[in-house]
Design brief:
single chain; about 80 residues; alpha+beta; Signal recognition particle alu RNA binding heterodimer, srp9/1; four-stranded mixed β-sheet; about 25% strand; flat
């Protein structure tokens, strides 16, 4: 079987403020922003789907892992 190469990967981000998040990606990072998508260099570059959280408490970036006292490290 021939190995297949992945050419792109999309990320889904849960955000507390959709408008502010869209503005950040558009103005600070120069991305194309639609109602839900953040795109840079087409879908073979950066592709992020922004989803509005029901509450700000639903958004937990780098939440502490069970059994650890420090946040989960960024990889």
């Amino acid at each position: 079987m021939k190995n297949k190469q992945i050419h792109s990967s999309l990320t889904v981000l849960l955000v507390s403020n959709l408008g502010r998040s869209q503005k950040f990606y558009r103005e600070k990072l120069g991305c194309e922003v639609t109602e839900w998508w953040v795109i840079r260099d087409g879908f073979t570059g950066l592709g992020i789907k922004l989803l509005k959280a029901n509450t700000g408490e639903d958004v937990c970036p780098n939440n502490k892992a069970k059994g650890y006292n420090s946040p989960v490290p960024d990889v």
